[in-house]
């Protein structure tokens, strides 16, 4: 049985509690009444992720928040450009695009609502984990505010500066240090993020300025992946799609 199936099965057991902690950059935030303050780019969800959401009864709620029309890849370096790939229900991948805020809203509201799977998830915002320890009894999570939590399993989907990754590889390195110093050094190279040499910029452009120049510009009506030569590219979508 795949790992995701087992996790879904555990999540569906009402006697088990599942905590989701979302760290934010808000320093002076009332944790008991914290609102969703995290922002970010659009994300694409493929079949495996959608399967998990479907098993939890959330796929229909997610689809109602997805980008419409769906995002696509467009060839535009010729006089008559054309869209050669569309990500949507009719595509081979079955991928759909949503904004990150919509995804977090879905997790925080739907999973804690008074419907299935009610009572099995506890979503906490402004809880930034700094490290964890583990022993035969489970995992202890240490948070920036001095609090801690205990769990059977820790899934660290915490981004480029992941304290989960740092703690895990630091521990592996320390255990290997006595018998294989070279391997220990190699493990530590995985503990921290390494710059790949590529820059990615994210910014907002007032759609009114684009409309003034070209009212029917394709970027005003759908999300587009503009593919350039080498590693140069641009992904655009209108914020009006999410509001």
TrEMBL record:
The organism of origin for this protein: Cerrena zonata
Swiss-Prot/TrEMBL keywords: FAD, Flavoprotein, Oxidoreductase
Protein origin, superkingdom: Eukaryota
Name of protein: FAD-binding domain-containing protein
Origin organism lineage: Eukaryota, Fungi, Dikarya, Basidiomycota, Agaricomycotina
GO terms, molecular function: FAD binding; oxidoreductase activity
InterPro entries: FAD-bd, FAD/NAD-bd_sf, FAD_monoxygenase
Domain FAD-binding: from-to ranges: 42-176
Record GO biological process: secondary metabolite biosynthetic process
């Amino acid at each position: 049985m795949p790992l995701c199936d087992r996790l879904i099965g555990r999540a569906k057991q009402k006697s088990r509690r599942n905590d989701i902690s979302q760290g934010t950059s808000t320093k002076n935030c009332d944790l008991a009444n914290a609102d969703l303050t995290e922002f970010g780019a659009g994300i694409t969800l493929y079949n495996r992720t959608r399967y998990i959401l479907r098993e939890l009864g959330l796929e229909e709620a997610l689809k109602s928040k997805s980008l419409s029309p769906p995002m696509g890849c467009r060839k535009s370096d010729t006089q008559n450009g054309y869209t050669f790939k569309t990500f949507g229900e009719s595509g081979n991948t079955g991928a759909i695009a949503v904004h990150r805020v919509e995804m977090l809203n879905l997790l925080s509201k739907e999973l804690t609502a008074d419907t299935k799977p009610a009572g099995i998830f506890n979503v906490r915002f402004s809880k930034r984990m700094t490290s964890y320890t583990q022993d035969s009894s489970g995992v202890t999570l240490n948070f920036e505010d001095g609090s801690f939590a205990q769990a059977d399993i820790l899934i660290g989907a915490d981004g480029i500066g992941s304290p989960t990754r740092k703690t895990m590889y630091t521990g592996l390195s320390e255990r290997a240090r006595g018998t294989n110093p070279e391997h220990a050094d190699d493990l530590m190279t995985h503990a921290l993020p390494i710059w790949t040499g590529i820059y990615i910029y994210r910014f907002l452009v007032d759609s009114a300025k684009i409309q003034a120049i070209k009212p029917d510009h394709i970027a005003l009506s759908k999300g587009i992946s503009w593919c350039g030569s080498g590693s140069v590219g641009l992904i655009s979508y209108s914020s009006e799609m999410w509001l």
